[in-house]
Amino acid sequence: MHGSALVGTDGSIDWCCIPRFDSAALFSRLLDANKGGFFKLAPTNIGSTNRRYLPNTNILETTFVTSTGTGVLVDFMPVHRHASLPREALEVTDLQRVVRILLCTQGRLEFEMDCYPRFDYGTIIPHASLSSPTTGMAHGGADAISVYCSSPLSVVNDGFRSRGVIFEREKLYATISNQLSFSHLSEPLTSAELDKELADTATFWESWSAQCTFQGEHREAVLRSALTLKALTYAPSGGLVAAPTTSLPEAIGGGRNWDYRYTWIRDATFALYALSIIGYTGEARAFKDWLEWSTSGRARDLQVMYGLGGERRLTEIEIPELDGYKQSRPVRIGNGAYSQFQLDIYGEIMDSAHIFRKFGGAVDAEYWEYLRRVVNFVMAHWKEPDDGIWETRGGRQHFVFSKVMCWVAMDRAIKAATELGLPGDIDVWRKVREEIKTEVMDRGYSEERQAFVQCYGNNNLDAANLMLPLVGFIPATDPKMRSTIKSIQAELTSPKGFVYRYTNFDDGLGGTEGAFTICTFWLADNLILLGELDEARKLYDTAMGCANDLGLLSEEFDSATKEMLGNFPQALSHLAMINTAVQLQKASGGAPSGPDRA
C-alpha cells in the first residue's frame, strides 16, 4: 500500500521498492543477477516448496520441505488496522518495513539469511555496519536501510549474513526498514511486537476481504484480484500503480521494456467500475478523488499518466549498468509516454465521472465545471491525430478507439446534464456526438475487412476496438461489430486462444511482444454479449491459465513458451479479469452486481 517486494519460490526477495512503489529499487536482482542485490531467507538443502497467500490476505506463506525438517516462511508488509478507514484517515509515513518470519514446524532447519542491498537499481554498493549482534545499517548516499535478524549477523561483502539452526516450534525473525542515511538507527521491534504486527495485518486484510459482495463461481479469483489491486494502491493518495516493476520485457531479449510504477488515467476508470461492481465503493471513490486532484488545472495540460503523488514530469532514462531481465535491455526508469497526446483519456475521465455517479456518487458544481472544460477540449481537438491507447512511438494517427472515446466524452456529458439537470450546451454536444459517430462509422469501418480497423486509412485490426460495445458505442450484436469480433477472434488470436493487440503495424518500437492478457478478457466480454457463453468461459479459463501459482497475472503471455511477459503483477489484467468474471455470472443468471458500465 506504499511500496513493493516480490518474493521468489526460493525465499529470495529479488525486487523491492520502498518507501514508495516508484522509489529506486534497493533489491533488483530481478533485472541483473550479479549487480542487483537480494534478501534471501530460507532453509538449506530444500527438497520441495509450496506457497500460498493466507486466506483473504496479502500475507505470503511459503512451505519448505528439507531432509531434516519442514518450515513455513511468512512474508508481509505491515498494515495497521486504521488503514481500513477511508483514505483520508491513513497515516502517511516514509517508514516502510518488510517482515519475514521462519517457523520450524517439524524436525530441525538449517537456515541461511543473506541481505545484500544495492541501492539505486544496483548502481550503489552501500557501506554495511553492525550496531549490535542482531542489528545493522547499510547506507549509500541518501539511501539507507536498517536490518534486523534474531540470529547473530555478520557483515560480508557489503551486506549481511546469518547462519544457524532452529528446531520445532522455534521462529527466526528478520526485517528491513528504510531509513534516512543521516538518521539514527531505530530500535528493532521485539518478536512479540512483530507477531502482533502479523496479527494486525491479517485482521486488516480479512476485514477488507469481507466487504467483497461478489459470490459467483469465480469468487476466489475475483477476491485475489481485488486484494492485488488494493496492494497496488498507493495509500496516501489513492493512486493505483499500473504494476510494481519496471523493464520486465514484452519479449525475452527484446527492447520493449517500460516502467509501469505510475498511475494511468485509464487505469483509474477501469478501477472505478471493476471495484464498484464487487462492493469496494470506498476504493473506487479514492481513485475518483485521485483522478480529480491529480488532473486538476487546464484540460489542455492533462497528462496520460502521473506519479503516485500527482507528479507530472516522469522523464524516461536508461540504466546501462544493468543486464536486464534475462538479458533484455535496456532497463528504463521513468516513462516518456507521460508527454504523449492520447485523446482517449478525455473520454475516460468523463466515463469515470459517469461510473462514479451510477454507483451513487455526487457531481457537485465545481466538479461539473471541470468536466465541462474536458468536454470543451474534446470538441476542439477530436479531429486531431494522437498517439493512441497503446502509446505507439511511430507517429500520430487517427486511431479509431481514440475517436470512439471522444464520442464517450460527449455521450457521458449529455447523460449527466440531462439526468441531473446540470448546465451545458446539450444541443451542441449532441451534434458533436453524432458527428463523431458518423465519421467513425464512415472512416473507421472497412467494408473490405468487414471490421472496424485500427486507424483511418489502413486495414489493420486492433483489439482495442473490442471496447466499442463495452462503452456503449455500438451493440456487440450489430452486424458490423459482430464481424469485427469474429475477425479479431480469427486473426489476432493465437492457436491457444490468447489475443494480441495488433499485427502488421509499425508502432515505432521495434521487436515483438506477447499476447495481451487484458485483450483476451475483452474478447471474452464480447462473446458474452453475443450470447456465446461456452466460448467465453473457455476464453476466461484460458486467460486465467496464464496466472502464476498465486493467481497473479502479468501484462502479457507467451503461449508457446508459457512464460509471463511484461510487468508483473499488472493492474489492468486483474481489473479486466474481475469484469469478465462478473459478466459471466450475470449472463449465467447470477445476481447482478450493479449497473452496466455504459
Helical run tally: 13
Strand tally: 24
- Overall mean pLDDT stands at 94
CATH architecture of the largest domain: Alpha/alpha barrel
Largest sheet properties: 13 strands, antiparallel
Basic shape: elongated
**Distance linking N and C termini:** 30 Å
Rg result:
25 Å
What helical percentage do the residues reach? 25-40%
Classify the oligomer. single chain
Class of secondary structure makeup: alpha+beta
Secondary structure blueprint with pairings:
Elements: E1 4-7, E2 12-17, E3 38-43, E4 46-53, E5 60-66, E6 69-76, E7 97-116, H1 119-122, E8 127-132, E9 135-140, E10 143-149, E11 154-156, E12 159-167, E13 171-180, H2 191-209, H3 219-231, E14 233-234, E15 239-240, E16 263-264, H4 265-276, H5 281-294, E17 305-306, E18 317-318, E19 332-333, H6 344-358, H7 365-381, H8 400-420, H9 426-443, E20 445-446, E21 451-452, H10 479-491, E22 515-516, H11 517-529, H12 533-544, E23 556-558, E24 563-565, H13 571-587
Antiparallel strand pairs: 1-2, 2-3, 3-7, 4-5, 5-6, 6-7, 7-12, 7-13, 8-9, 9-10, 10-13, 11-12, 14-15, 16-17, 18-19, 20-21, 22-23, 23-24
Describe the structure.
With 598 residues, the protein is α+β, with helices and mostly antiparallel strands. It has two domains: 4-207, Beta-galactosidase, Chain A, domain 5 (Distorted Sandwich); 211-587, Glycosyltransferase, CATH 1.50.10. The chain is 31% helix and 21% strand. It contains 13 helices and 24 strands. The protein has helices at 119-122, 191-209, 219-231, 265-276, 281-294, 344-358, 365-381, 400-420, 426-443, 479-491, 517-529, 533-544, 571-587; strands spanning 4-7, 12-17, 38-43, 46-53, 60-66, 69-76, 97-116, 127-132, 135-140, 143-149, 154-156, 159-167, 171-180, 233-234, 239-240, 263-264, 305-306, 317-318, 332-333, 445-446, 451-452, 515-516, 556-558, 563-565. Strands 1, 2, 3, 4, 5, 6, 7, 8, 9, 10, 11, 12 and 13 form a 13-stranded antiparallel beta sheet that branches. A three-stranded antiparallel beta sheet has the order 22-23-24. Helix 7 (365-381) packs antiparallel against helix 8 (400-420). The radius of gyration is 25 Å and the shape is elongated.
